[in-house]
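cron nightly-structures :: item 1 of 1
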Amino acid sequence: MDTSRVTRSYLETLSTASLLELSDEYGIDIPEHLNRQFIIGELLEASNENFSDKDDLVETDKISQVENLPKSYNETKISVVLRNPVWCYVYWDFKKKEYTTYIKDPEFMGFSIVFMFFVGKDHDTPADTFEVPVSLKDRERFVLMQHPGFYVRAALVAKQKNKKSQLLVESSLLSLPGGLPDLSSQTLNKSVSPVLKLSGLPDILLAQYVNHRQSFS
């Protein structure tokens, strides 16, 4: 007998003996002389629970069949997002053919990420820049930002011997939160209030700037 799911109308057509037999299949302990309507109620409840469990299993199977995301989408692209007000997360990818062409070039010296800071979103000339060399296998980095209130753009470039760096792609412009201390050596070396100095925060910020200004993996 199919016990995957039953209905009240179906159970009403069964004899009491058949209801008790079905109860045994569901593992329901039915006391003697129990009213058949109570037996039907117990069977309906057990049937719904059984059906719900199977639904959960089906959903679990669907989740387990989801494939892992590809390591590359074969697209030369770079993106920058804020992790918090002072750290950003930058990730990039290459078109396979373009990537292969560069690394096989005898003049090729490696890839870098160039960060450009703009005073305003309509400015074309960056007020400051810094460069982060990356390995051939790198596809992501966390980078310590500076110049709060500025705009930042990241550019993926290929370094070539005796040639100008080749710009591969640029990210969209990202607005940095304002109201934070400017993370630059000149600013961090300036005098601060005694309370802030006592907290040790200036020393921490300066150490972060000196040791991790560019990036860490």
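cron nightly-structures :: done
The two ends are 61 Å apart (CA to CA).
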